[in-house]
Structure formats: C-alpha cells, structure tokens
Amino acid sequence: MIDTEFLLECRRNAYISCTMQFIEKNNVVGYFGEHIPLEIFYGYNLFPVPLEDVDADVFAFSSDDIKNDKTLCDCIRSTLTYLETDKCPILHSCKAFVFAPVCKKFFSAFSNLTKKDCVVLPNEYSEWEAYLKKLLASFSDTAYDSASAYNAKKKLDYISSTISKIERKTKITTEELFLLQYYTPYILELDERVQYFKDLEQQLVFSDYDFKRPHFSLPCPRGYFRDAVSYMPSQAKVSWGDSSGDFADSHCFISAPINVHYSSSNKI
After folding, report:
1. Of 57, 88, 117, 227, which is most buried, counting CB atoms within 10 Å of its CB?
2. What pLDDT, in 10s, does the model give residues 236-247?
3. pTM
C-alpha cells in the first residue's frame, strides 16, 4: 500500500535538499532524538534534519580509532566515519547539531570530531522549549517568528496525527509504518511533507475500528531498521527507546533485548 522505495529515496533526496539549503542559506541543523519541538527550528527559519543512520559500506573508510573502539555501536561508528571523512552531504551541510539527552556515548564521540557547535538538551523535557529558543537564536540569521513556529507546529501535529491514524486504522506492514515515521522527516519542506500525507489519506482504506498492533521500543531506530524489523511481526509499530537511560551503555539494541509491549486498543 505504501511506496517504500519513495520513502527510502527521501533520505537520498535530503542530500540534495540539505546541500542546496547550505549553499543558499546555511540554515540546516542536525538533530538526534525524539520529541524535540521542531517547530522552534522553523520559527528561526532553520531546517531540522535527523542525524542517525547506518551505512555499512562506509566502514571501509573508518579510522583505526573508530574500528578498534568496541564500545561503539554500528550507528555511532557509521555516523562518526561520515563525520570524520566528510563523506555525508547532510552532516557537511549542518551548521550545528542538537542532541536529546539519550546517548552520552554518541554525543561525546560526535562532538569530539567536529568543530561545529554540538549541544545536548537538558535532562528535563519541560525545559527543552525554552532552552531551544535561546540556543537556536545563536545559530540563526533571523529573529524568531512565532507565527512561522505556530504554522509549523500545526503541520507537524497534522503529520503526527495522520501517522497515528494510519497505525490504528490500517493494516500496513511494520516496515511501511516505520518508514512513514522515520523517513518522511527527510522531506525537509513541510508543505511537501503535508501534501504527501494528504495524498496518502486519500489512497488508504481506513477501518472503523482500531487494529491491535504490538509496539517495539528501540534506541535510535533509523540506525538499523532492516535488522530490527526482521525480528518483529509483520504489523508492528516501532517507537524510540526509553529516554531515561543511556542507549550506548545499557539500552542499545546490540547489547539489550528489544523491549516490546502490546497496545490495549480493540482489534479489528
């Protein structure tokens, strides 16, 4: 039902989009984590783009330090190699990087390899919005536009609610739902992303009842989605892992079992 090749292509297209934004405005900021209030970025005319992913082909270019550090997961190792070799257009295009406080290992290793600003958000989620408003002011060339932030939030909320509706009211596969959640953010232009979901709503058939879908909790899921999805039932949902722990040290997929729970919704 979902064109998964298009969604995978969204990341490849983001290479071009980020490069053009870098050349024309230098307003791309990379982020790592979930539930970051992204509308604040748009209020400063900044384009937020996710950081994490895994490309095994790049491991051939890893430095000895990265290869020999057994504490690094593949997601960190891949991202650090791209950062160190400057082979990723997205990382190259970012003027700064913002991290949710979920993986100290990733933040420490990443920030030690770049001269660009790397900032970790406070531990208390309630402080993120005020902190980001102050922080992003130093990264932006424009003043904060509350109307732009408000409009961006409306669009982001629509996208989130539509994904939730698709999750509950259709029987799309684990992979399809995963890509809707984690790869559509690579459509940097919010109006284009909104239009994609409006078109999708017209194409899909929605049930009158909620579908009971098992939920799996994983740290930085973009980093290894094909392996992770292969462990799951055909119609599951993937969520970001428990943000109270440090993924690299104790909650990483590499060293810890997948956390799974079932929704309490009614079956179709």
Report:
1. 88
2. 888 876 544 444
3. 0.87
